[in-house]
Each structure stands twice: as structure tokens, then as C-alpha cells.
Amino acid sequence: MHVSHPISFDEFDGMFTALRHSAWRLESRRRYAWDEQQGTYRQFLAEGRVDWDLNDPWCKERREQTALGKRFERVRIVDEPLAEGQRYLLDNARRNAAVGEVIRVLARSKADELGLPREDFWLFDARVVALLRFDGADEMTGVDLVTDPVEVLRYAQVREAAWHHSVPYDELAG
């Protein structure tokens, strides 16, 4: 049972600059409605790749934070074959890596074998978890904060297993 409380999207956004050391994400969804609303997604569908703007505010913030020595890492669980939204995110990994994130991928079959959760979350400084809530249309509807040390440890164990069994994104892309 999760002991959590909801936070606003603004509070969630602020966590990416307030963190002291690291932010780690597990991405488990096949698609994200937000992505599909972006011009970059339409470009990806038309051309099979995206010309990412590495000077947009998100990229600038990530570069600034990594320059301060903060780590941003994620593991994306992917299907075999990749879903369309996962292929887009694989292209997006080029942008994330260019601004300092480390992106790895893990086959869904392996994630299931390991018993990894199907929920998306961020683990900040190995002390607080932000659980991302989605509706049936794959739209993010909220964020719940988990601070109970026992629950946080469970998510840290998920991180360790996912990281150990995943591979760098470009091994899948290549």
C-alpha cells in the first residue's frame, strides 16, 4: 500500500531544480498522450526522426543542472517490437543524452520477469518518489509524492534491478 499525497504540477516541476544529487525515472508506458500533441511527434511520424531544439528551456535547465554535478537517469521499458510512442522516445533519447541524461532501455519481457512495477515514477535523491498518474487515454493527470522510507527503499530496489538489466538506449537504436 502506498502512503502518498498529491502535489501540483508546479511543485513537481520544481523538484528537478531542488534536487541535490540525482533524479531517476522508470518509464513503463507504451505511449504518452502529451508526446503525441507535440510538433516533434508529427515530424517523427513524417520523417522517422526529429530535429531537436537543444536550446529550448527544458534542455537549458537540464544542462545547467548537470553542470552542477546532478545526475539525471532513466530506464525505458520497451516492447518487442517497439510501439510507435516508444520509437519516438528512442529518438528523443538523443536529445536527452545531448543535455546530460543517461538513458537505458529494458525489454518489457525482462521487466515482467523481474516483477518490476507498471507504474511510472521519478526517484529524487534516493529519498522521495514522485508517482505519475495517468488516465485511460494515457494523459498524465497528477503526481503523488511518497516519502515513507520503507516505500522509497522499494522504489530504489526497482531502480537497481532495472538499471542492472537494461542497456544503453543507443544499443537498441543501432
From TrEMBL:
<feature type="domain" description="DUF6879">
    <location>
        <begin position="10"/>
        <end position="171"/>
    </location>
</feature>
<dbReference type="Pfam" id="PF21806">
    <property type="entry name" value="DUF6879"/>
</dbReference>
<protein>
    <recommendedName>
        <fullName>DUF6879 domain-containing protein</fullName>
    </recommendedName>
</protein>
<dbReference type="InterPro" id="IPR049244">
    <property type="entry name" value="DUF6879"/>
</dbReference>
